[in-house]
């Protein structure tokens, strides 16, 4: 499946959280990714997941499905409690 993102959103995300979307794409290929489900953000349905990014950091991503591709909306490092959840596979 194709994974995309908006360049402006990616730049803002990097300024805010210090993560490049190109690094967090690896989360979609992490067999242990923890899907936290979907939520409504800014009037749209978004999906949240915790996984290991390309630089081996535990990160959280928000994404959406657009037609036949995934669109990354946001990415940040996991909090200590999110990292613990990922490591122990406990859900909220």
Structural domain count = 1
Helices, by number, come to 3
From N to C, what is the helix and strand string?
EHHEEEEH
Oligomer: single chain
Q: By helix and strand content, what is the structural category?
A: alpha+beta
Q: Helicity, in percent?
A: 25-40%
Protein model, in words:
The chain has one domain. The protein is 26% helix and 42% strand. It contains three helices and five strands, in the order E-H-H-E-E-E-E-H. A five-stranded mixed sheet has the order 1-5-4-3-2. It is globular, with a radius of gyration of 12 Å. The mean pLDDT is 91.
Reconstruct the topology from this structure:
Blueprint: E1 2-5, H1 7-17, H2 21-24, E2 34-41, E3 44-52, E4 58-66, E5 69-77, H3 80-88
Parallel strand pairs: 1-5
Antiparallel strand pairs: 2-3, 3-4, 4-5
